[in-house]
Every structure is written in C-alpha cells, then in structure tokens.
Specification:
Pfam families: DAGK_cat (PF00781). With 301 residues, the chain is α+β, with helices and mostly antiparallel strands. It has helices at 19-28, 59-71, 91-95, 102-107, 139-149, 158-175, 232-243, and strands spanning 3-8, 32-37, 52-57, 81-85, 113-117, 120-123, 129-131, 134-138, 179-185, 188-200, 222-228, 256-259, 262-266, 270-273, 276-279, 284-290, 295-299. 25% of the residues lie in helices and 32% in strands. The strands form 3 sheets. Strands 6, 7, 8, 9, 10, 11, 12, 13, 14, 15 and 16 form an 11-stranded antiparallel β-sheet that branches. A 4-stranded parallel β-sheet has the order 2-1-3-4, with helices on both faces. The longest helix is centred in the middle third of the chain and has 18 residues, at 158-175. It starts with a strand and ends with a strand.
C-alpha cells in the first residue's frame, strides 16, 4: 500500500499541524500522499488509485471519515483508515493503542497490520445510526451540549480543555436528574433510574474517561456501564479524583457488563451517539447491535 489520501482537520488540537508538515512527514516515509482538508467541499472524493486513508484529526474527524466509508458508492470494500491523532481527547486512537509520536506512527505503517474495527448500529430512531465510541443517555449528552455552549478559551492547551470538561462533568453529576430506563442486555433485564447509561465500544469516552478498560472494538461485544441514582456519589468521587490528578483509570470503582445486543426503552429527551447529541420525541425503544462488517483500520507495527 503506497498511495495514501490524507484527510486533515486543520483546526484540530491545540497546535494544529500544517498540510505541508504532514505531507512532508508521510512522503519522507516512502508514501505517495494526496491531500484534502475536511473543512473543504469535495474532500470525500477518493480516486481508485488510493490504497488507504490517513485521518489527521480527533475523534470527530475519524467519525466523519468512517461515515463516508460506510456510505461510499462504487467501492466494494472500504479502504483501511490510519489515524494520526491530532484532537483533544483522541479516544479512538488511544483505544487502539496509538500512543507514539506522529513520526513513530507513520514509520510503523510499512510493517503494520489491518484490524477490523466493529461498528455499533442503532435501530429504532428516525434512521439507522452508527457509532465507533459509544452511545448513551444521562449526564453525558448534557455534558456535550454544555461544552458546546461554552466559549473555548483562546490558546487553551489539550490538558486545559480536558480539565475544563472534567470540571463541568463533576458539576453536572451533582445536579443532573436520573432517568428511568428499562434495558435488556442479551437476555438479562435491568430497570432503574440512571445518572449515566453508556453502551461502549471503546475504552474511553468524553474527556478521556476510562469507563470500559476491557472494551475491545474488534470483538463484537459492548461494555455497558450503568450508574444508578444510588451510585451517583461514587461516580462523582471518581470524576473528582481524575480532575485532581489522583486517578488514571476506572479500576474497580464501577463494573461494566458485556453484551452483544442491547434493547433500551426510555423517555429521555436526549441520546448521544459518539460526540453527537440527538433529540428524542417521547418514549423511545431502540436496539443496539453490530454491523455485519467492520471497518478496516491500519495500525503501525
């Protein structure tokens, strides 16, 4: 695989890389590199000569490209996606173990391997929806909406952005009303009032919260995290410890339940799908499962 198309979000991250810097890095490692900014129209056009895609951006940009891959016409199979993490959270990249520098990641593609990233699928909404990281209700949709309403501080670092999100989340946990839901995880029934309900395909969510350390996006099993009203203080303590730098993982504080299919009945107003929030109108019944085919991702060797 020698011909790559670089799909670049030039505004992602605190120190956005330039197109020239990225192309120089990729071409110096022996790849032919085409370029498109995801901020420009027509970035979705991919010629037949392209062997794989490079996404330089954050989780939102990865989702944007994945959506195009899932709906691309005239191509029998999706192209492999390689990630150069350039966003704030980079939860997908971290779940896939991409912790090296950009130089190390690009150099590793020659001896890399392709994995199938299984894609979550939601039925029961206005149209079928997909997700890479997770979907859920409760305090996380509220966090996403709240953060988007806040003005981003000028020259804010990645660490400052994550800290601000954790601080906001901690405040919301104390005030957000628990929501009544019924769900079936494979064959097991649950019904309660939940402060947080997350169906996860990645280890991390939001501001790098490691809610599902056992999650493996290759195994077609969700990790479902349920935080009831009674467990609200535990969730609050966990987020506060993260905010103050005293924790790095979820550990044994709350457990996740593995399931291959989730059926959910709720009257919530909002559901998040990755980093997008959709409004629900009245009682909603949804089924969450996996697409028959995953998406190929190229990991460095």
């Amino acid at each position: 695989m020698n011909v790559a198309k670089l799909l670049h979000n030039p505004t992602a991250g605190e120190a956005a890389s330039t197109a020239l810097e990225l192309r120089s890095l990729i071409e110096s490692n022996g790849f032919e590199c085409q370029y498109a900014s995801t901020k420009d129209s027509g970035w979705e056009t991919i010629g037949p000569e392209v062997d794989f895609l490079i996404v330089a951006g954050g989780d939102g940009t990865v989702r944007q490209v994945a959506q195009r891959q899932l709906t691309a016409p005239k191509r029998p199979e999706p192209l492999p996606i390689a990630i150069l993490p350039k966003g704030t959270a980079n939860n997908i990249a971290l779940t896939l173990g991409l912790t090296g520098t950009s130089d190390e990641i690009v150099a590793g593609w020659h001896r890399g391997r392709i994995i199938q990233y299984q894609v979550g699928l939601i039925h029961g909404l206005a149209k079928p929806e997909f997700f890479l990281e997770g979907c859920g209700l409760g305090v996380f949709p509220k966090l996403i909406n709240t953060m988007r309403d806040q003005e981003e501080a000028e020259n804010e670092t990645r660490e400052e952005s994550l800290l601000q999100a954790l601080t906001t989340l901690h405040s919301l946990i104390g005030s957000h009303r628990a929501e009544t839901c019924q769900l079936i995880l494979d064959t097991a029934n649950y019904a309660d009032e939940f402060v947080l309900l997350e169906v996860l395909n990645s280890r991390l969510l939001g501001p790098n919260l490691c809610l599902a350390p056992a999650a493996n996006p290759q195994d077609k099993a969700f990790e479902v995290v349920l935080v009831t009203e009674q467990e609200r203080p535990r969730l609050s303590r966990y987020v506060d410890a993260l905010r103050l730098g005293g924790l790095t993982g979820w550990g044994d504080r709350l457990s996740a339940i593995s399931a291959t299919q989730v059926k959910l009945s709720t009257q919530t107003d909002y559901l998040h799908i990755d980093d997008e929030v959709i409004s629900l109108d009245g009682p909603t019944d949804i089924t969450i499962s996996f697409r028959a085919q995953g998406l190929p991702f190229l990991l460095p060797g």
